[in-house]
Amino acid sequence: MPYNGLADFVADLEKQQQLCRIKTFVDPILEITEVTDRINKKNGKALLFENTGTGFPLLINAFGSDTRLKMALGRSDIDTIATDIMSLSDISRANMLKKISAAKMISQIMPTHTRGRTRCQQVITMDPDLDILPVLKCWPHDGGRFITLPIVHTRHPETGQTNAGMYRMQVLDKKTTAMHWQLHKTGARHFEAWKKSGQKMPVSVVLGGDPVYTYTATAPLPENIDEYILAGFLRKKKVKMARCITNDLWIPADADIVIEGYVDPDEEPVTEGPFGDHTGFYSLDDLYPAFHVTCITYSKDAIYPATIVGIPPNEDACFIKATEKIFLPPLKIALQPEIEDFHMPQAGVAHNLVIVKINKSYPGQARKAIGSFYGAGQLMLTKYLVIVSGDVDIRSYRDLAIHVFKNTDFRYDLIYTSGPLDILDHSSDTFAFGGKLGIDATEKYDEELSGRYDTVPPSSVDLNSSIKDSIRNDIDKINIADDMPVAITGLYQNDDPKASEKAREYFKKKEIKNLFRLVLAVDHTVDIDDHFMVAWQILGNSDPVRDIELIDDNTLFIDGTIKAYHSKGFPRRWPNIVCSDRDTIEKINNKWESLEIGPFIPSPSVKNSAMIRDGDGAVVITNV
Questions:
Q1: What is the pTM of this model?
Q2: CA R_g for the chain
Q3: Is 391 a catalytic site residue?
């Protein structure tokens, strides 16, 4: 159902036993993050921090479960959204009665403008001060406090086309923030257009309102689709828009908080960051435009929304799961009708790994699919892309791995290329550009096997105990899978910058050759028995073109170690991983019982901090 602001949503969360109220003071500086990270990683409830040291309560982890996400989207089943989208796609083939019905539905979801003051303007502050808001400093090496769930409204100066995107905002002073709209985002393109116009760019930021707005601001929509059309479609009710006080932008009338202002393209950019990002690493400081606040308005019962990111999984993983379902029909309609399913595993943080299942009907179809995906909106940023076919569950990772090994010959079925990457990718030699790998793991037609000089290498191997013992004696830190031809090794680059090169050579040895299909190398600080952590490190720390080697006809070696420690060094700054500091962890340990949110949960950062390099700071300092 549609919600009239976050207070309405909170009441429903509490009714459905999906909310914990926290009355004890918890500091927005580091402490709220530490509490939320513990709750989030245990699939806990939404948290309403009522005592934030400001006049606003703070809602966080509101989308961190399938149940709460369904509530936010106004649906009892997200699959019904895909069904509705498919029904709209049949308009061109429908009879006149159905066309009329569809047209009526579309008219009911188009946003509409309202007159006069609305809920979001019950309180108007013309002398704005961002310090009235409980803005979080999430992680110890963040550059400052960040607004983490802002819906940033902009307009193109020539076309009038509007956009509502989610771009984090670092608070610089009471009336100024940095505006982190990334290179590939619509907000950045609007900014470039305003720069050419020589005018100040109006910007308004919405916090809260119907929670469906938060999802639509993150959704991978085509640039010409209004986010509030999608919001109306999801909530099955049009969004009422109100005109801002100090600029001519329109924002949802039921928003909780609105921050109005402008960006002056003639100003020098400001330093923004570091920020503990959804990749699990710090995105490092860089230059971004300054946003100047001219007015803050809010409702009398306003709630400040926030989220935290960091080492996955986090709350944003639920958004990704929804996107997989909601945007499958548009992908099938507009791009590839053969797509049966696609999946973005949490360890791949959305853009590092995408698994696609197709209904294969001709040879070479997987290669066609790879090319199409690399040209499809935000999917163009995908680093590793795996295409499968046949009867395999792409969310069962063991079954998926067996399928890939069975149907992939690494000599022929790996398609390397280079192209645009997410700007948060730290592993490529150059900013926002680097290596990509498409893997054709589909079941093969005879035509695709023609000319191959032998069969696909085995998908499993039986290593006797003496061979395993021999390998373990040779390598200090290694995990050999019992039922798959996979080895994971932890390398001590601190002691030997050539550790990766030596590991590659070791697995080329005659007595080891062909025993494994896949060898994964990570730093010794990584828990090699935790396959999720290994996958996250491999996907985040590797450039496929630079860091993958076919070390014989059978074995693929992937180097997921920190490249700053290699003997050849690394041309860019390498970021550290994101963890709480010991002081904050201890504060929350001591405060936990007073929070009244259930049994004690130890901090995930205690284990994860073993992966921090060089002790202190957002940047890894090379020792070579």
A1: 0.94
A2: 25
A3: no
